[in-house]
Description:
The chain has twelve helices and nine strands. It has three domains: 2-178, no CATH class; 207-244, no CATH class; 253-370, Glutaredoxin (3-Layer(aba) Sandwich). Helix 1 (2-25) packs antiparallel against helix 3 (52-71), helix 3 runs antiparallel to helix 6 (154-178) and helix 4 (76-99) packs antiparallel against helix 5. With 372 residues, the protein is of the alpha+beta class. Helices cover 46% and strands 16% of the residues. The strands form two sheets. A six-stranded mixed beta sheet has the order 4-7-6-5-8-9.
Amino acid sequence: MMKHILNAIRWIVGLLFIFSGLVKANDPLGLSYKMQEFFEAWGMPLSFNSYTLALSVFMNAFEIVAGIALLIGWRMRLLSWSLLGLTVFFTFLTGYASLATNPDGSMKFRSCGCFGDCIPLDPFQSFIKDLILLAFILILLIFRNKIKETFSNTIISSFVIAVAVVFSFGAQWYTLKYLPVVDCLPFKKGNDLLALRQIPPNAIPDSFDIKFIYSKDGVDKEFSVTSLPDSTWKFKDRKQVLVRKGENNEPLIKDFVIKNKSGTDITENVLGRGGVHYLFFIQSAEALKKDDKWRDGLQQILSRSGKVSILTAVPEEVGKLLVEKPLTGKVEVFSCDVTAIKTAARAIPVLYRMNGSKVEEKWSGSSASSWQ
């Protein structure tokens, strides 16, 4: 009986780790950005952000390899202690995320990134999941000596682990170079960006109540609008109190704003253009200098009378770069918040082919030769 229970727990935990690692390996930049959110909340130096992508890739690979190792019972002593350490760390993160709030009382983190953007879980749901997982791993740790390796030949086990390592790192190299295989973001192919900037029609708004604060004899007291005090009380302040949280009352695409040189919001104008046009997302001019493939790709599009809007967090620097090495055709440079660019472009750089406000196709800079 105990053997069957252990095997069931081993398969549940192993498959969960593999699934979790694969989902995040589909978008390692997404986990990297989530780590940066945690570092910012903890007041860590900005220099830490330069290590988050490497940490993200390693953690995703570890989850995949550890899950496979658990399924074949490979080195259970080392593996069980490693899984315990990782799960304790995750439990701490999700516990912190579920308790951290902004000054207005709202949650600081809407998602912990445990299953990437494809399966968004709020921090409390992730915390409960990690507590259950922690209990399972403690059982595996205690009874690790009862778990036998699937393969009696250690060479076969080592080969399976080696293949898992190559696959887990290779898959992430591919997604970082050519964009995620499965796009779970609101900027994915086929979506209408203007429509997704609007609040959904079935949204239920937040419900608020106004409380008035009056003072009398050194005592402050709150009153509702229907039961205000007499003139012996002195008005002091008023505040808005959330009575009921709404549902589905936020647009899927938020904070994506395109501005011209004067700082005017022209998002509706750019996205509302009729016909085919292109959006070229780039975070910094330095990234453009590293690889010139994008230039030939954009020039081919411009030569076919394509309209290209470059969206960047540093429009002045990109503008100077285009002056040094100009492109022939209709190209405009607009500013866009770097966080919005990180969400829209999971590679550096990324090109969108738009039909009006709908995304028809998207490519990373590494695919510049196939831009059309």
